[in-house]
Amino acid sequence: MEQNPKNTGNMATDDANYSMETHLIYGKNESNKWDYSHHVVAPLSSSVIFRLDSAERGAEGFMEFANTATFGEENKPIYIYDRLGEPNKDLLEENLAYAEKGECAVTFGSGMGAISGCLGMLTKSGDEIIAHRSLYGCTYSLLNNWYPRYNIRTHHTDLTDLNNLHNLINKNTRVIYFETPSNPTLDVMDIRAIADIIQVVNNERKDTEKIYVVVDNTFATPFCQRPIEYGADFVVHSLTKGIGGFGTDMGGVVIGKKQFRDLLLLVRKDFGAVLGTKAAWSILTYGLPTLHLRISRQMQSAQKIAEFLAVHPAIEYVNYPGLPGHRQHEIATKQMRDFTNNFAPGSLIYFVIKGDNYDDMKNNGRLLMNYAAKNAYTLTLAVSLGHTRTLIEHPASMTHSVMPASELLAANIHPGGIRLAVGLENPDDIINDLKSCLSIF
Ligand SMILES: Cc1ncc(COP(=O)(O)O)c(C=O)c1O
Q1: Ligand 1 centroid to 220 CA: how many Å?
Q2: Residue of minimum CA distance from atom 6 in ligand 1
Q3: The whole model's pTM is what?
Q4: What is the CATH number of domain 290-438?
Q5: Which atom from ligand 1 is nearest to the alpha carbon of 241?
Q6: Domain 5-286 belongs to what topology?
């Protein structure tokens, strides 16, 4: 009997016939990881250990783990212990790699687990990282509070200016790291241009000295942008955000070339930042299948809200890649494209409240947060993003408070800057709440 493609779920070969949106709903019902072809939704595996039947099968499982070169990847895995691998994570990884157009994915317990796993795999003592000047606060802390202990140095620079990249590359450079759009300022880096520069440098280098381009694609999600298509070597995500989508589970992922899968599995096994099976299942069942619906709705609202904020008298400026006035609007138009190639500038907005000086602006940011927390129904004062609810926060006193004032200014993170992560509410309700909050100035 001929099989219905949604039951065999062979996404790679069905690629031409069905869209990404459809594939992310069905995923693979029958995979070499786990056959659940008679379930409509993947079952939730909650077994930390797996029965091995015999000492020989156990020995084989340990030999096969993270040993793709010898054993290939088409074998049915012999599951041993959750920290090494289990079916829900494996199924999610197949779908995430597919959505990002990468060769493989390895999940982690959080976005920071994925970032530290990827950078930990790529660097060693004496190596250097070149990173964009504005980054998520904990990534900044990882690079500046922890990596110097291991003799790994980070140069922060403005990667929207490619001259800075040219000037900083040296023989010790191993990683170029950035978020695009960046947290919280929404700078947009030209992924293709950066990858091209690195390719030229790498052509002259031995394998052990190559430089890797790592892009944190959390703000865009694969719905808006797939950096590997533009030459990035690795994509990292906090799955806690837009991909998870409901604010119920934490997770992270590294997506890249197959040749790195084994090393990433070993990093995850030994450093231990493992994604919980329940989180993997939620992201697979709820997050990925609804990604396109949620992000396209949030994006339409974000455009409307950004246009409202851009002409408000209390606001100094607005950064939203969908506004023609955004400094890298052209680049955003080129590389931020949804699954069907429409411009997809994302669901985050950064805006700066006016003020007379640094302290005044920072204070205005705080006043706005406190007013919103008490009075605005559709603005929730909370960190994170990519939620069903619109979340508002003041980076200088919250997510980026690990950075001293001088470093915040060097990173162009303004004391009066506000990050708005647009949710699924009616955009007119959000605008009305913002209007009443901004009326305090
Ligand atoms: C851009 C970006 N990357 C990484 C992270 C870290 O993710 P997690 O909180 O899942 O560790 C965050 C968290 O806000 C983020 O905004």
Answers
A1: 12
A2: 111
A3: 0.96
A4: 3.90.1150.10
A5: 10
A6: Aspartate Aminotransferase; domain 2 (3.40.640)
